[in-house]
Amino acid sequence: MKAGRAEFLRVLIQKLDASGVAWCCLRNHQEIFEDTRSDVDLMVLPADIPLFETFLEEACRETGTRLAQEASYLNFSRTYLTPAGEWVRIDYESEVRWRIFPVLQARAILLRRIRLDGLWTASPADEAVVLWIASLFRGFLSDRYRTRLLQLDEKMKSSFPSALATYREAFGRWGIRLLQQQSDWLKAEDLRLFWSDFKLALIVRVIPRPALGLQFVSYLLYDFKRAIRRAHHPRGFFLSVESSPWDEVDSVELLWRLDRIFPVAKSLFLPSGARTFSWREKLRISRTLFKGGLVLCPLPWGRPVSQPRHARGVRIRHDPENGWIGATMPGGWMTQNLQAKDRVESCYQLGLQALTMPSPFSRLPKASFCVILGLDGSGKTTLARHLSQRICQTSACPSVRYFHFLPSSPEKTEFPWPHPAAEPKKRESPSAAGGLLFSLLRLVRNWGRAWWNIGFRYRGFRGLLLGDRYLYNYLLDPVSVRYFGPVSWVTRALRWAPRPDLIFVLETPAEVILQRKQELSPEEILTQNEKLGNLPLVARRIVRLDGTRHPEDLADQCLREIGLDLGKT
Description:
Elements: H1 5-19, E1 23-27, E2 40-44, H2 49-63, E3 66-72, E4 76-81, E5 87-93, E6 95-98, E7 101-105, H3 106-111, E8 114-116, E9 119-121, H4 124-138, H5 143-156, H6 160-171, H7 173-187, H8 192-206, H9 210-232, E10 237-242, H10 248-257, E11 268-269, H11 279-290, E12 294-299, E13 313-319, E14 323-329, E15 334-337, H12 343-355, E16 368-373, H13 380-394, E17 400-404, H14 435-457, E18 464-468, H15 473-476, H16 487-496, E19 502-507, H17 510-516, H18 522-533, E20 541-546, H19 551-568
Parallel strand pairs: 2-5, 10-12, 10-13, 11-12, 16-18, 16-19, 17-18, 19-20
Antiparallel strand pairs: 1-2, 3-4, 4-5, 6-7, 8-9, 13-14, 14-15
C-alpha cells in the first residue's frame, strides 16, 4: 500500500518525539491526518529549525514522498506529494507576528502546550491568538475560524486567568478588552472598525517596550534581506502552454488542480497570448513570482513567450506527432506524457513532474561539454530531446543546457523541441564586395562568444552542456552561417576554441534522411556526408552513432558514454 498523508505525518511526529525536539500544532489539529485540504501549522524553537528540516527530509525518504514547493513567507512552508497522491503542506515557524510587529514567541507557546490524542497542541488561548492574527492578515473572519474561536472561547472561560495573561502578552491592554468582548464580536457581522483597533493595538504595544522594539528592528532587517533573496530567486512558478486546442475554461481548471500548491488567490492568468508583455504585465508577473504564486500563460502553438529571468517553471507544447512535451526552466530537463487522454490532465501531470523532480546527485566536478554532429534530418534534435528525457528519468546530472550552434547566457534556456517537416533551404550567394572580410569578422565574433559563454559564464555550472553542431557548422554547412572564407581559418579557430569532452557523430544514410525531411537536396546530402566523415574533430573522445537506430537506444548509449567520460575526470 502506498504511503499517504497520515503515514508521512506519523513518521515525522515519531522522529520529533524521539529526538526530544519541542514542537506543537498551532491550529487545524482536529483532523490533521485525514483532512487533505488542511495545512499543518507547527511551532518549533529557532535553534531546532535545522534539525526539524532534517527530519522532514528523512520522512520523505522513508515514505517515498517528494517535495513539490518550498517557500519562505513570515513562516517557512513546504508542500509534499505522497506516493498515494495526497498533498501535505507543512508550515513551520518560530514566532507569531503580524507583519514586522511581534506577538508571541515560540518558547512561551511551547511552555503552555498540551498533549491531546498523541499530538502536542497549542493551548486554547494561544490557538485563538494565532487564528486572530491569521484573520487580521486576510482582513476578514472566515466562517470556519469564527466557529473555532467560539469553541475556544468556551474553553478559555474555565481557565480565564491564564487566558487573560496570554491575551495581554500578545495584544497589550487591548487584549483584556478583546477577551472580555470576544463572544460578542464573534457574533457581529461588520468588523471593519474592529480590524483598525486591532492593528493600532499591535503597533502601540511595541512603543513602550525596548525588548519588543529590538525584535521589531530585527524583523525589519530580516525581511529586507529575505526580500532581496526572493527577488533574485523567486519561489513562484511560470507555466506556459503552447497548444492550439486550449481555452479559458482549461486554464481555470488547471489553476484549480494546482491550488494545493499555488493557491488560486496567488495565481495570475494571462489570457493575451502575446509574445512579449507590457511593463504592467511584467510587474504583475514579477509580483506573483515573488510572492510564490503561479503564472499561467496559454499560447497558440509555435509562439514561444519570452520567459522571465531566473523564473522557475515549465514550458509545455502539444505536437500532433509526439503528444504533450514539457521542459523545465531553467533546469533544461524534458519529459513526455504518452498517455494524454485529457489536455488539462496532461499539463497537470507534466507540471507535477517538473515540480516533484527528485533531487539529483552531483556527479560532475565541472560541466560536461558534449556536441552532436550530423546532417539536417539525421535526428540530432530528436536525440537531444530523448537524452534530456533520459536524464530527467535517471537524474544522472544536476541540470542540462541545450544549445544550437552556440550557447547563450546561462539565464536563458533553449530546448530541442520537435519540428514539422522542413522545406528545402534557401541558399544565398555571397556578396561580391566584403564577403571574405565579413566572414572573418563573424568567425572571430563567434569564437569569442564560445569562450565567453563556455569558458567563463558556464565555469561554475555543474551539469551537461549539450550542443548541436557547435562551431563545426562552419565546416559542415558554411553557407548556413554565412561563411565564405578558407577552411584553414576555421581549423585554427577550432583548435583554440573550448574543446568538447565528447563528440557524438550521428551517421545516417542519405536515403533515410530524404525519407525524414527534405531540408537538403540529394547532392547536398552527399556533399555534407563526405565532409562529416573527414571533419578535423578536436575533443577528448569521439563516438560514432548509427543514425538508423531508435532514438531511445541512442540516448541510452550516449548516457553510458557520458558516464564513462565522467569516470575519467
